[in-house]
Amino acid sequence: MKKVLAVCLSIVMSFICCSGVFSADTENPSNTLKEMGILKGYPDGSLHLEDTITRAEATALLVRLDNLEFNSSSAFKDMHGHWAEKEVSMAYAAGLVEGTGEETFSPDAKVTVQEFVKMVVTLLGYKDIAESRGGYPVGYLSHANMLGVFHGLKFITTDEINRGDATAILTNCLDIPIMQQSSISFDDKVEYIIADGKYGREYVTLRTRFEEKQD
Asked: Which of 55, 90, 138, 181 could pair with 70 in a Cys bridge, judged by C-beta atoms 3.0 to 4.6 Å apart?
């Protein structure tokens, strides 16, 4: 089983590595998120896009993009007094992130590509599909690739991801139709739909949902 998963992961990584390279000379996707108020700079105004993103920073990006609003106390001892305590608490309550231990989140730990992709796929609502396709990391990487999350980017998925590439991934995700709950059947089975605007379905993306909450 482990050998099969290793082969699958190798294939997924090959797809990602052959999908093109984002160039800093082209339109910078970080500008989009900065204008939306999602990507915030440091006190000196710099974005430090070349720096590896931390778990706290990655979580804050997701919370700002989804405009989460949860009144929840921190479940992690190492988040008490941290600048991202509120954001991590909200993301954890929404099921977007997990801890690194029962009472720890490790906010300043660096994030790998595959770890960030798991967060993003969950934000888009495709967690159950990713789990059914092999779970973490294979299922999340393969489904993210199918959705177009890696468009114009090149990654070694086990490498740490910098702030610039993380924002490029999120920019790619802005117009991907999300998967959302449609109903609960008589046997308590949750049913989902892809909000792609087809066959009378509502068209919902991270961008449309963000803009709606801004009004």
From this structure: 90
Query: Helix crossing, 55-66 with 85-93: angle to 10°?
Result: 70
pLDDT of residue 10: 46
Q: Which pTM value belongs to this model?
A: 0.85
Are residues 163 and 199 part of one domain? no
Nearest-angstrom CA–CA distance, 156 and 147: 18
Q: Which has more pLDDT, 38 or 46? A: 38
- What confidence score (pLDDT) does residue 137 get? 96
Q: Are residues 126 and 70 in the same domain?
A: yes
Phi, psi of 110 (to 5 degrees): -75, 155
Quick one: 54 and 158 in the same domain?
Answer: yes
Write the CB contacts of 171 (distance below 8 Å, at least 6 apart in sequence). Answer: 29, 30, 32, 33
Q: Indicate the number of domains in the chain.
A: 2
The backbone torsions φ and ψ at residue 35, rounded to the nearest 5 degrees and listed phi first, read: -65, -30
118, 187: one domain: no
Statement to judge: residues 189 and 146 lie in one domain: no
Helix intervals (H) in 36-162: 55-66, 85-93, 113-124, 127-132, 138-147
Same domain, 130 and 187: no
